[in-house]
Structure formats: structure tokens, C-alpha cells
């Protein structure tokens, strides 16, 4: 399958702009240091599919998949966007993602991630909050989440979701909703 060179060029330019924006850090609201990085979405009643409309304006057929988020969670304010052209997504080996997907396939791991979205936790806090039988149970599931790239240990005995993984995780949870 041939990929559209113009679409790849535009996607590369978009990713470069995002990388530059992410490198600037975030400003405190009201500090006067905020920068506008994208147009405001139109009111919902005007175009309920504003994101899709904007994507179709930017990416020619056969299209692309993009997910983005601007969220306030325990780790602070996070903004993230990622996208890939349709051709790329259909050409890659999906099996390469099995470990990351499998790590999310246990209810206790999802409960741990839900706690970590609120911010860094120690293993003792997770054991207490989730009423786990032992720290060994917590470490077993944290190890699987770490192998899948969903958590890291910034300090001995404490765990967090890397900021670059929060919006992807929330996007997956959103995609799993039945609506």
C-alpha cells in the first residue's frame, strides 16, 4: 500500500510543531505566558464533529487517526496529541503492541492506573487504598504495567504514570466506552 507523501509531510510538520509546543512547558493560567496553539473549537451546537471536520481538512484520503487531550489530573495540566496516517496503521505489525495491551487486561491493574492518574503513589498507599493482600501482589501488577510502558518508578517505592502516557491511557478508556 502506497502512502501519500503529502500526507506524511503534513503529519511530520504537525508532529514537529507539537514537539516544539511540548518543549515550551506549561504556563500558569492567568500568568500572561500562555500561548495559543490551536484554534478554539466551534460551539458544539454549531458542529458536534468539529475535531473530525478539522482532521479531514488537514489530512487527505485515506485519512489518519489522531487522538489528543488537554487534561488536569494529579500530575498537573497535561496536553498531548498523537496521530498516524491510515496507511501506516494498516501496514505495521499490530502484534508488537501485545504486551502494552495485555498489561491493561486485568481489573486490578486498571484500578492501580486509576489511582496513579491522581498522582504518584507508594506501594504501601496502593496496598491500603485497593485493599490488597500484600505488597507482593501490588509489585506483581506494577511490574506488568511497567513492562507494558504504563508506569514508572520515579523514586524507590513510589510509582507514577509518565506524563506522556496519561492522555493515551485516557483515550483508550474513552475508546472502550459503549456509546
Automatic annotation (TrEMBL):
SUPFAM superfamilies, per database record: Winged helix' DNA-binding domain
UniProt name for this protein: ArsR family transcriptional regulator
Domain HTH arsR-type: 99-178
Organism: Brachybacterium saurashtrense
Single Gene Ontology MF annotation: DNA-binding transcription factor activity
Region described as Disordered: spans on this chain: 21-47
Pfam families, per the entry: HTH_20 (PF12840)
